[in-house]
Amino acid sequence: MKIEEVKSTAKTQRISAHSHIKGLGLDENGVPIQMAAGLVGQESAREAAGIVVDMIRSKKMAGRALLLAGPPGTGKTAIALAIAQELGNKVPFCPMVGSEVYSTEIKKTEVLMENFRRAIGLRIRETKEVFEGEVTELTPVETENPAGGYGKTVSHVIIGLKTAKGTKQLKLDPTIYESLQKEKVEVGDVIYIEANSGAVKRQGRSDTFATEFDLEAEEYVPLPKGDVHKKKEVVQDVTLHDLDCANARPQGGHDIMSVMGQLMKPKKTEITDKLRKEINKIVNKYIDQGIAELVPGVLFIDEVHMLDIETFTYLHRALESAIAPIVIFATNRGRCQIRGTEDIISPHGIPLDLLDRLLIIRTLPYNKSELLQILKLRATTEGIAIEEDALAALAEIGANSTLRYAAQLLTPASLTARADGGQRISPPHIQAVHTLFLDAKSSARILTQHSDKYMK
């Protein structure tokens, strides 16, 4: 019989437009390196973003907002994602697009508030009393069933726990015995039992039994140190939106009707302001007691010009509240009409009173050498082999059209190269796909030249 190693079924991340970005690419003094962490050029914008990251880390930025403004394809979303990478996975980052607020199921303001709450984290530190150790004995003690009949019921369970320092015998409630059975606890397993709630967690098999079987799918853990009865600090990270959802959904019973009722409900339900206020009260109480700390995250709203005047007014109020995240807007519009108004023209399509509150970071178009570096990065990320002169031809196309168009030509060019039997993309392949597809400028030119042939 042949034994093969089974490959892990871990989910692979699809390659998106910004998979290559790992951070802002600054040195220890906060000065941007020309090409680092997946970002190229945009030195002044990256340096400004670095200062913003420092402000967020020192909790001096909550309730303020930032605007990334620049022409399309100049790396605004890339910088926002780089800020998220710099902050690490412990700081909540919630990306959304301006058009997302126009949901058919719930109000615009509800969508915004939901995303606001998603971007605020709460780190809860609890000191729990636990009994931890290797199970040396597990004996359920049975008595006559008080309701009569022939069956016997478990009155209590005797469990022996052993650590490196000593042993203890505990007498536990029958409900904990059910938890022990659910976790499939046996003698020789390392478990911990919470003293207040009676929750049981099986950590694995004690490593003294590691040589018990030749082949074993079990995870072995060392014998716990210290006493059996100890205090343990548990840190839990949740967002305010998680708390809202947990309290908004009434927990039904386990009968078939309540399960059916939950299935029949619409997917989205609006969370009332009253509930949110109650949750804020509890959160503030926890913060005052020192049990929890607030972690203001980042809410990134791309295409902010898509929001309308009502939403902007709501944003004002949300930014001024005591519990608010850092908001990063991005837009590629110049002077344009504010959505939802008849005649108000404003820079970036944002009302002037909101623009006043924003720190604005400008992004500039890339030059040809920067385009070349970015395209090289993208080719490496997508695992595409390309010749140097083909890369130069692609950068030339990017300089005449846009970076996005040039990056999109990479995959079709690699497929063309493979169809020709080659492994690397050469200049003829780039030219071939460039003639097959149109960029925005070429398309506009054709429309102008042949305007009589198209419908008005």
Automatic annotation (TrEMBL):
Pull one GO CC term from this UniProt entry: nucleus
- Entry keyword Cell division: yes
Catalyzed reactions per annotation: ATP + H2O = ADP + phosphate + H(+)
Q: What is its EC number?
A: 3.6.4.12
UniProt record, GO biological process: cell division; DNA recombination; DNA repair; DNA repair-dependent chromatin remodeling; negative regulation of signal transduction; positive regulation of DNA-templated transcription; positive regulation of gene expression; regulation of canonical Wnt signaling pathway
Q: Which Pfam families match?
A: TIP49, TIP49_C
What sequence ranges are listed for the domain AAA+ ATPase?
62-365
Q: Does the keyword Transcription apply?
A: yes
Q: Which GO terms describe its molecular function?
A: ATP binding; DNA helicase activity; hydrolase activity; transcription coregulator activity
- Cell compartments where the protein resides: Nucleus
Q: Which UniProt keywords apply?
A: ATP-binding, Cell cycle, Cell division, Chromatin regulator, DNA damage, DNA recombination, DNA repair, Helicase, Hydrolase, Nucleotide-binding, Nucleus, Transcription, Transcription regulation
Main role? Answer: Proposed core component of the chromatin remodeling Ino80 complex which is involved in transcriptional regulation, DNA replication and probably DNA repair.
The UniProt similarity line reads:
Belongs to the RuvB family.
Protein name in the entry: RuvB-like helicase
Q: Which organism is it from?
A: Papilio xuthus
